[in-house]
Amino acid sequence: MNELGQKLRQARIDKGYTIDDLQQITKIQKRYLLAIEEGNLDQLPGKFYVNAFIRQYAQTVGLDGQALLKEYQGTPAKGPGEAGQSNETETSQTQETSNDSREDNTKPASRITNEKRDLRLEKLKTYLPQIIIVGIVVILILGILFITVSHQRNNSSSNTAQSSASVKVVDDTKSNSAAKSKRQSSAASSKASSSKASSSKASSSKTSSSKSSSTKSSSRKSTKMTVSTVSGTQTTAGQTYEVKNYPAANNTVNISATSASTWVTVVANGTTQWQGSVTAAAPQSVQLPSGITSFVVTSGNAPVTELKINDTTVKLPTSSNVVQNYTFRVAQSTATENQ
């Protein structure tokens, strides 16, 4: 039996197991494992445990336990107090040993499976902090991307609104160009008739002409230019005004801001006269061309915008729309008189 123990011991060493490792795997006490390796089978509790322990030991180290028992004297030596038992008892014990050994043969495999599962859990616990950190980084990156996309969409919407306001200004200018040309034609004919009348008066009497000129001059000085809203023309996008007693030349639009800043465009005769930013500290005066019948002032920040035509303050309406178009129509009779 000592050869059996040596063979089992060598197989254990080849597997790289220590006695403590074998005890942990098979759950057989260390002293019994040493007794098997040293051939001291009489130290085991009895025949039943001798057969079971040898088979389990052999299976754990990769040997055939049943073949080993047959090779070394068929059946292991009996333990103390077992020599006088009958054949019938030995047969029943052999059957019990066979059944128990089958159960024991399944135990190491389940233990190995449990050990593998435990090993996987340990590995998962080891990498768990890294997995959590990677997850947090991914969430942060996605959050930054979402904020960036939202900001770009908001900027795009704002640019679209400003473009729409610019288109409205251009459309209003085009729609007024036809009216301007008709008014200019009418103004030209009025100028011609006025010129004829003046020539007739001059030829009749120099004194009368001189008195008439002085009377007109005093009349012009005493007449003040007025700016009033045209009823029914106010919309969310702007307001139309009528300018009376408008001088024939040297007219200016004075633009200022109460606070912050505003973007302003001035269009006359279909041509942009000026556009730029106006602040409280940097007002702007725009010279208007002579002979115009209307002009348009567009403000990109209406609540802070202030307007004057020459020295006359324009009362601007309040509106929820910050982009406003202010259209000024020069009264026909005033334009003719000033010529």
From TrEMBL:
Residues 259-326 form the Cytoskeleton protein RodZ-like C-terminal domain. The chain crosses the membrane at residues 127-149. The keyword Transcription does not apply. Residues 85-98, 154-166, 175-217 have a biased composition (Low complexity). Residues 73-113, 154-234 are annotated as: Disordered. It comes from Agrilactobacillus composti DSM 18527 = JCM 14202. Residues 225-234 have a biased composition (Polar residues). GO terms for molecular function: DNA binding. It comes from the Bacteria. This is Cytoskeleton protein RodZ-like C-terminal domain-containing protein. InterPro entries: Bact_Cytoskel_RodZ, Lambda_DNA-bd_dom_sf, RodZ-like_C. Keywords: Membrane, Transmembrane, Transmembrane helix.
